[in-house]
Amino acid sequence: MIHCQRCKAQNPPTQTSCQNCGADLLPGIGRGNRIAVLVLGVFAALALGILAVMALPEPEAEGMRCVVNTLLLGAALMLGFSLLRGLGKTPLAARYRMRAGRHVPIDPEQAFADYTKAVEHNSSDLASWKARGLLYDKVDLGNQALRDEIGLLSGAMAKEKEQVKGELASQTVKLYERLIQGLGSTGDTQEVVRTQLRLLDFVERNVGSLVQFKTDAVGFGTGVTLSIRHDMKKQVREARQSMARAGLIRAIGTCPICGKEVVATPDLQCPNYETHKQLRDLRFVMPDEVDQLMETLQGKG
User: Structurally, how many domains does the chain consist of?
Assistant: First the structure.
């Protein structure tokens, strides 16, 4: 339910104006804030303008011209920003984000819906993505809802810049882990393994975004970034090998001696000869998917 900011009455999610007082249920920046921004912006622009006048160079002081130009540019930008912020229309994504923030403590479901609207209108809205992710534990997400959410995040991540990608990748990993736990509680072992394999595939495909997210969060340097990337790849590799040795998944790879794709042994080796080297281009699949993948690979060959 949407809680009216003016009279606090509750309204259906489809309502655009309050049924009790008629107020807009999706208001923009308030008049008081707009006036404050305008006043502060004008005063800041004036202050920079005065400094520019005071720094007007003498004919022989050519070095001061750069300072004056910088101050004047700053004054113009400050004035333009304040006018745009104070007189311009609040973007729809920002309006949904503002309303969502008000609903977080009183109606997490409505807040989640509003943050979803915000990212629909501005898919690069990192603040809304983050706030939305924090609500996962407060809204009802069953196994199917988790699958849908993973699909939504994965689709959005493919289109976004690195910082947003990192946030979405991190959220996707967390949701995958929740889905695995939920499936485990139902006793569906086969589906748990399938989901674990998808999670490892996801991490491998998006290791760059995940590493970027971790390093952005704590400010690591390049050396530590490379170390995290190496560790993540190693964890994925070891997890797959462990699952393959347990017979939960199967591996298909290219043998450099046989010159063709083969189904690997549990130790990820070519089954034809003990002396053959380790397989290349390993692909990990569920046991019931082996025949289909082999047909596809042989058809390409």
Answer: 3
| Residues pairing with 283 in the sheet | 252
Which amino acid type is present at position 201?
D
- Residue 278 is part of which domain span? 250-300
Count the Cβ atoms, other than its own, within 10 Å of residue 192. Answer: 19
Let me know if residue 196 belongs to a domain. yes
pLDDT in tens, 71-91: 777 778 777 766 666 555 778
In a domain, 132, yes or no: no
Structural tokens at position 177: 């882990």
Whether residue 216 is contained in a domain is answered as yes
Q: Six-digit token pair at 117?
A: 């609207």
State how far the Cα of 278 lies from the Cα of 31, in Å rounded to an integer: 69
Output the six-digit token pair for 198: 């998808």
Which of 224, 245, 266 represents a domain boundary (last residue)?
Answer: 245
Contact between 118 and 97 under an 8 Å Cβ cutoff? The reply is yes
Tens-digit pLDDT profile for residues 108-156: 999 999 999 999 999 999 999 999 999 999 998 899 999 999 999 999 9
